Amino acid sequence: MTIGWCFDNTYHKLSKIFKEDIKPIPVKKPQLVLINKKLALDLDLNFSNHDDKTLSELFSGNSLPEGSDCLAQAYAGHQFGHFTMLGDGRAVLIGEHISKDNERYDIQFKGSGKTAFSRNGDGRAALGPMLREYIISEAMNSLKIPTTRSLAVVKTGEEVIRENSLSGAILTRVASSHIRVGTFQYVAARQKIDELEIFLDYVINRHFPNIKNSQNKALDILNIVLEKQIDLVVNWMRVGFIHGVMNTDNMSIASETIDYGPCAFMNVYDPKTVFSSIDQMGRYAYCNQPIITKWNLSRFAECLIPLIDKDQEKAIQLATKIINSFEKKYEEKWLNMMRDKLGLFGVDDKDKFLILDLLTWMHQKKVDYTNTFCHLMNEKIQEDKKYEDKDFQNWKKRWNERLKTNNNTPEKYIKLMKTVNPLVIPRNHKVEEALKEAGKDNFKPLTRLIEILEKPYDQQKDIFDYQIPSPLDEKYQTFCGT
Ligand code: AMP
Ligand code: MG
Fold it and tell me: Is the CB of 123 within 6 Å of ligand 1?
């Protein structure tokens, strides 16, 4: 039986300015480490009749599937505010797979060797960071947050040199596309309006076909991406996810969470939380994520200006109006998300104060963000005396008063809360422990962690240990690189 690949490679048909046609560089001794059978099912792929050796050859790029057309995508991006030409320096897109329900998925190998965009890099990736991306991207998907997915990880049998010598690995990443704000920036920087037009049409055909015939496609795409990015960042704020490196090249036009480098989850509520070792100024801190989303969208808008209107002044005016709608839309969506977290139906003028007072209390008393909502849902978590605090009890009285409005009942509000408040998130110490053991060829903690994180909204056996806040946080550091 065949695996079921069904490639239709539209990016490959774009002109050569958008990419380099290049295959993965073969690796010495590929060895399959993880394979995502549930995702395979969603993609209508079937690996069950293929042994590990065949799958290792496949997911290392040593043996390419029929119908693939490999390429590295060109893109640019603002990294920590500075514009740079980038591109897939260590990844190749092997093609676009079409599932039976006609969904299109980019299949990309990350860590697959040097390309024209590698600059000084080796084109490779280390095992730890690829497993980390697998764990967290799959956890995000289970948390019902749009994200790129992880289909497989193979060890390459080669060493990669970072600070130490590490095991090399390749991650198979699946995305609705890998087109980024930075891809538009790359095309726009070439200052050829026909190229920009072709690219905009390509993206609209692929992601937003409903605006194909609209009067002003450039303005419409800006509006749509703005809405979708707000939804995405509100979701991040909901679960305490900190992306860590929100450069414009790491912002997907399809608004999926992409590029799991230094990301991590907040434990104790502190809006200024930053984990990334290189983010010394806190540019990408938890509380700055919406601000940076708007900043990145402004860069996207700049790319579109020549296509919005021939009159530049007018184009800028039109785009600015959309960009300036960000705050109001964000606030509304954020408030509604927080209302859901607290089980509140309808709208009360005082909701914002109720929400902010709870957050302030968590911050001041150094209380865990995720577990506080578990406590409010009467879920058994680690005994925490912090909830006996008088200020918290007073806050709870106000919350209980508010809950009584809008025909609310405990059944109704708990049901709502359970859909948005996870019982488990990837706790930093648990992720580190799983990676450390995997480095010693013990994959048990890793597979157990992945299994627990598959059902974050459900009570599960032995979940308790995974709910304990990370004791590492104050000094926990994550790294780009990789
Ligand atoms: P990232 O930090 O993963 O978003 O990557 C930023 C840019 O650096 C992208 O253009 C990557 O392709 C490139 N890059 C990261 N690591 C490597 C590497 N080991 N070799 C070559 N290019 C890399
Ligand atoms: Mg990136």
Answer: yes
Among 472, 475, 364, smallest CA distance to 426 is for 472
How many other β-carbons are positioned within 10 Å of the β-carbon of residue 120?
5
* Three-state DSSP class for residue 283: coil
Euclidean distance between CA atoms 11 and 227, whole angstroms? 25
- Nearest ligand to the C-alpha of residue 262? 1
The dihedrals phi and psi of 14, each to the nearest 5 degrees, come to: -70, 160
Candidate of 19, 75, 79, 86 to mutate for ligand 1, largest count of ligand atoms within 8 Å of Cβ: 86
Residue-wise pLDDT for 392-403, tens only, equals 999 999 999 999
* Cβ neighbours of 171 (radius 10 Å): 29
- Tens digits of residue pLDDT in 109-135: 999 999 999 999 999 999 999 999 999
pTM of the predicted model as reported, rounded to 2 decimal places:
0.98
Largest CA distance in the chain: 66
Task: Evaluate whether 368 touches 469 at the Cβ level (below 8 Å).
Answer: yes
Question: Which active-site residues does the annotation give?
Answer: 249
User: 261: Cβ below 6 Å to ligand 1?
Assistant: yes
Q: Is 330 helix (H, G, I), strand (E, B) or coil?
A: helix
φ, ψ at 11 (rounded to 5°) = -65, -35
Question: How many angstroms separate the alpha carbon of residue 75 from the centre of ligand 1?
Answer: 12
Q: Is 360 in the pocket of ligand 1 (CB under 6 A)?
A: no
Of 369, 359, 366, 362, which Cα lies nearest the Cα of 266?
Answer: 369
Helix (H) or strand (E) holding 430: helix 428-439
Q: pLDDT of 288-322, one tens digit each?
A: 999 999 999 999 999 999 999 999 999 999 999 99
Q: Please give the Cα distance from 355 to 377 (Å, whole number).
A: 16
Rounded-to-integer distance, Cα 169 and Cα 154, Å: 5
Tokens of 460: 């599960």
Asked whether the beta carbons of 18 and 73 are under 8 A apart, the reply is yes
Q: What is the CA radius of gyration of the chain?
A: 23
Nearest CA to ligand 1 atom 14: 89
Does 422 contact ligand 1 (Cβ within 6 A)? no
Buried residues in 231-251 as b, exposed as e (16+ CB within 10 A): bbbbbbbbbbbbbbbbbbbbb
Q: Which residues contact 390 (CB under 8 A, 6 or more apart)?
A: none
Sequence-distant (≥ 6) Cβ neighbours of residue 244 within 8 angstroms: 261, 262, 263, 264, 274, 275, 276, 279, 284, 478, 480
Token representation of residue 371: 């577990």
Least confident of 85-94, 108-117, 337-346, 461-470: 461-470
Nearest residue CA, atom 13 of ligand 1? 89
Section 208-220 average pLDDT: 98
Q: Atom 11, ligand 1: which residue's CA is nearest?
A: 89
Cβ partners under 8 Å of residue 302, min gap 6: 188, 319
